[in-house]
Amino acid sequence: MTSQTFDSFILKHQIIGFFDEAITLKSGRESHFYVNWRQATNDAFLLNQLTDFIRDFLLQNNLAFDSLIGVPEGASKTAVITAMKIAQASPTFAKGSHIIPMGRAKPKQHGAPQDKYFIGQPKGRTVVLEDTITTGLSLVEFLHSLQSSGVEVVAALGLTDRMETRDDGRSVAQYVHDEFDGRIQYLTMSDATKLLPQAIRSEQPSDGVVSALLQEFERYGVKPLDLEAL
Ligand SMILES: O=C(O)c1cc(=O)[nH]c(=O)n1[C@@H]1O[C@H](COP(=O)(O)O)[C@@H](O)[C@H]1O
């Protein structure tokens, strides 16, 4: 798998959409584009391809880990299926060899303490999967809750980083580094500054949308959007 083949998958299946009217993001920011991974995760055929990409990416990056968990609930399904594929491909696959963890979006109010935040708690070195990352807040909140449950997180992996800075000017990569003293590796499989010029070429949004996107990146971008990269 190369980043180009993953970018082509995103573009081919229209995971990125453009909007004439700005939409409000989770952070309260407004944007004329949205990276909608549900386009792929609600479709069995595409989810099968997506989880192959993630498995290959994890292998290629030589990450040593024991558990994979998605940020609940958006990335949960994707992480469960990827974790299952990784377990099945392992030469040690047997009863008790791997676990399939999953986080709860809302803590459970009754039952055993280990069931409060998880339907299966991660064990060992853990990789956290997020779908789209804007300010990184959803990801970092989940990383903190894993840490407070005693989970050893070694890496955080995003399917797409929108490449925005936070209100304090830091990139998400820097934010994750600072929050966890560099102990959690931050990786992304795709980057909006590379995807958007190609998506603009194929989807042909209006001139108004294109100039709004350029302004968005002037204001929030880790770097300006370079449409000459077309
Ligand atoms: O709301 C968003 O920022 C967002 C933008 C986008 O293009 N795609 C997208 O899925 N999101 C959602 O926003 C969350 C990440 O926002 P942050 O917490 O700001 O990083 C993701 O978990 C998604 O639910």
Automatic annotation (TrEMBL):
Gene Ontology CC terms, in alphabetical order: cytoplasm
Keyword Phosphoprotein: no
Keywords in alphabetical order: Glycosyltransferase, Transferase
Superkingdom of the organism of origin: Bacteria
A single GO molecular function term of this UniProt record: orotate phosphoribosyltransferase activity
InterPro entries: PRTase-like (IPR029057), PRTase_dom (IPR000836)
SUPFAM superfamilies (UniProt xref): PRTase-like (SSF53271)
Single GO BP term: pyrimidine ribonucleoside biosynthetic process
UniProt xrefs under PANTHER family: OROTATE PHOSPHORIBOSYLTRANSFERASE 1-RELATED
Protein name: Orotate phosphoribosyltransferase
Organism expressing this protein natively: Pseudobacteriovorax antillogorgiicola
Lineage: Bacteria, Pseudomonadati, Bdellovibrionota, Oligoflexia, Oligoflexales
